[in-house]
Amino acid sequence: MDISFTQASTWEGRTFRNSRSLNVASRAASDMAFRVSRLLARRGALVTSIEPAEPLFGHSVRMEEQLQQGIELIQADLTTARLDRQFDAVVANMVLLSIDDWESAFEVCASALRPGGRLIFSIDHPIVSAAHNEWRSEGRLCISNYIQIRPVPRPVATDFHRRLSDYLNALRRHGLWFERIEEPTLPSEALADSDAPPHAALLQHLPPFVVVSAVKANQ
Ligand SMILES: C[S@@+](CC[C@H](N)C(=O)[O-])C[C@H]1O[C@@H](n2cnc3c(N)ncnc32)[C@H](O)[C@@H]1O
Description:
The chain has one domain (9-214): Rossmann fold. The chain is an alpha/beta fold. Helix 2 (35-42) links the parallel strand 1 and strand 2. Strands 3-2-1-4-5-9-8 form a 7-stranded mixed sheet, sandwiched between helices. It has 7 helices and 9 strands; from the N terminus they run H-E-H-E-H-E-E-H-E-H-H-E-E-H-E-E. Residues 24-25, 27, 36, 51-53, 56, 77-79, 93-95, 98-99 line the site of S-adenosylmethionine. S-adenosylmethionine binds at residues 24-25, 27, 36, 51-53, 56, 77-79, 93-95, 98-99.
């Protein structure tokens, strides 16, 4: 179950038709595989997708061979990637939180945008990344330290807790204007879904993600 993108209206209203879009970190390990790139392509975007990790990149290649959506795939680390063209939109769904040197990644995303182009990124809501790990089973958030930036070990990788202000204040440093922020929650009808997590009821009142859009300044 993924609500970070599918329910954010920053995303929902946009057609992306004929826009040149860059999707960073296309994770392709599950049935949800490669979903943001595919969603963009279905909406008419010309999609370029970056993923550094070999198994995930390999899976994306196989998916694209199967589905033939015209998605260009690049295997690269976002902190050092060199992109030789400009994009109308850069989408970074749940990626910046996984990168230690996230400001370098942010800089690559911002530089890849044409003036007026849009960066859309989502992260774990900082109230969630600041909470003690047991929050899912306890049914409530317990936070004792929001301020300290720190690694958050996860089962498959390490994410990082940062303050919302760290991300929002970085926009101006990278030539972007804040446009909109959303805190999507789970709609009640999703509680009946077979893949609803045990703490789904809590997610009706507590937004697990933040989705931000920002526009590249004209200089
Ligand atoms: C939580 S997953 C999210 C993936 C995907 N965007 C999605 O919506 O499912 C984090 C992703 O960040 C990628 N990642 C981690 N470090 C990265 C880096 N330095 N450059 C680019 N991607 C990175 C991982 O390979 C993984 O695909």
